[in-house]
Design brief:
The chain is α+β, with helices and mostly antiparallel strands. The protein is about 20% helix and about 35% strand. It binds FE2/S2 (inorganic) cluster and fe (ii) ion.
Amino acid sequence: MTNIREASVNLNHWWPVAHRERFPRSGIRGIRIGPMELVVVRTAQGFAVYEDACPHKRVRLSQFGTLKQQQLLCTYHGWEFETRQGHCTSLCGMSGQPEQFNLTPYPVREYGGWVWAFPGEAAGAEATPLPDIMPANTPHRFYRVPMEGTVNCHFSFITENATDLFHAELHKAQQPWANPQLLSIEETEASVMARYRVETPNPLSALFTGRGQKEVIVRYEYPYIHLYEAGGGFYLFVTYLPHDAENTYVFSSFYFPHILKIEALSRLLLPLVEPLLIPILNQGTFRQVFLQDIRAVEEEQRAYNLTGQEASRDPNPVTHAVRRVILKQTEHCPPLRPEPLIRRPGAPL
Ligand code: FES
Ligand SMILES: [Fe+2]
């Protein structure tokens, strides 16, 4: 596999499946990570993640499942499963041993306001670390603005966009940064770390980071993107679920420290300030910037689809380092674009 736009997904990582506070207290949601369909279930007992298929006829539980107290019930034939381990508890009158029809569970963790699942080989879950999101370790010091949504492009376009600060022009109406310069770049088999120098012309951004020149660090550790100001002014964490070769579900959280650096004062004023500030940032600046990026990366996918060849010419070395890491990390994984089940007439066997 050498075509970055066909790069696959390595399931042996912790993948985000939900922002905790955005998930209903009791609910079911289907997600897709490349070839895998998973269902996230939340009850009063917590979160659980299973293969999104009823063991009976393989219909998706995200479509046919419903919650009955702490039980997950498939509304096709009424089979029931307890939600901690996914054990089948009733075949609804059919003969057979319910325990032969348990759901397949996946390891789940909660960290930093996110819910994570490990869809790869379960034995690797313990030894695989979650990403270290610095503000998630001291949440009382930061506001967190979560955002998520589907973007119609291959995940590599999103990774390149988020690690390349030379696209300040795209966001010039909001001006979160300006006049970028690349200072340094370090690359390993699994990561790229780039340091940029930028300016902060926007008064709203300057509230958090101060005006003038800033150093911004971009750290890509497949499949996670960290982008933060060296002085601690803000922290953006972005990651995604590649659905297929042209659709990606993006999760991000923007963290910024309390404006008032005095924490006790912040705690007092927070209930007054937050309801006013967060919607402005969420609906205004962050959302606009997010939408501008989506428009650009979907346009890149469109250009790629014209020929199926990568013809862009990007002089930013960070882009090429990121591509190498993605290809390295996914080289032995099954393709995101499966072979069609029905062969075209005349196509070779
Ligand atoms: S398909 Fe789910 S109970 Fe039959
Ligand atoms: Fe951007």
